[in-house]
Amino acid sequence: MIRKTILAVALGAMTLGAAACNTVRGAGEDLQSAANAVDEET
Q1: Is the pTM of this model over 0.70?
Q2: Buried (b) or exposed (e) across 6-38, using 16+ Cβ within 10 A?
Q3: 3-class DSSP state for residue 42?
Q4: Which parts of 1-23 fold into alpha helices (H)?
């Protein structure tokens, strides 16, 4: 249950981050940051 909640929050953060960034490089950094956050939680 907690894992699903963390995944949902991470996906939401990635969506907002991708919408907020203006370049492909920025999107990549946002995705990497979100992936690192998920890794730290597991």
Answers
A1: no
A2: eeeebeeebeebeeeeeeeeebeebeeebeeeb
A3: coil
A4: 2-20
* DSSP label at residue 1: -
The per-residue pLDDT for 35 is 85
Tens-place pLDDT, residues 3-42:
889 888 888 888 877 666 556 666 678 788 888 887 777 7
CA atoms in the 13 A half-sphere facing the CB of 42: 13
Q: How many CB atoms lie within 10 A of CB 41?
A: 13
Residue 8 is encoded by which pair of tokens?
């949902």
State the Cα–Cα distance between residues 23 and 38, nearest whole angstrom: 23
